[in-house]
Write a structure and sequence with these properties.
Radius of gyration: 26 Å
Number of strands: 0
Order of helices and strands: HHHH
Strand content: under 5%
Structural class: mainly alpha
Distance between the termini: 26 Å
Length: 126
């Protein structure tokens, strides 16, 4: 095994933590793009000629493509974000954080050569 169990668990917790920033960032960008829809519509409506209309439509299309990228990014992170933000999962995530600390202690102990390990009475009884 290349990775320690504590590293795998920590990666999962990091994923949950990072999901909030990723989701919120993309959501705010999508909301910003959505708020411009009426502005674009009115600008197209007020175009004086075909050339101006084409220029505006092309600019709007480029923006819509960027919006789609952000919306896809938002959708990618939404389920993970919701899982991490769900009140019923807070206790589980807290237990996982504690598990990582306990697992790291075990890994550190087991990483010590057998001959150098210090016996502590009561440790094996847990």
């Amino acid at each position: 095994m290349d990775r320690k169990p504590s590293e795998i668990i920590q990666d999962f917790l990091d994923l949950i933590d990072n999901s909030h920033e990723e989701f919120n960032d993309s959501k705010s960008k999508v909301d910003n793009y959505n708020s411009k829809t009426y502005t674009w519509t009115h600008q197209l409506e007020d175009c004086k000629n075909k050339q101006e209309r084409n220029r505006l439509a092309t600019a709007w299309q480029k923006e819509l493509k960027e919006r789609r990228k952000e919306k896809d990014r938002k959708n990618l992170w939404e389920k993970i974000h919701n899982f991490g933000a769900d009140v019923s999962n807070k206790a589980f995530l807290k237990k996982l954080r504690h598990l990582v600390q306990e697992q790291q202690k075990v890994e550190e102990y087991l990483g010590t050569p057998y001959e150098e390990r210090e016996y502590k009475k009561g440790v094996a009884e847990k």
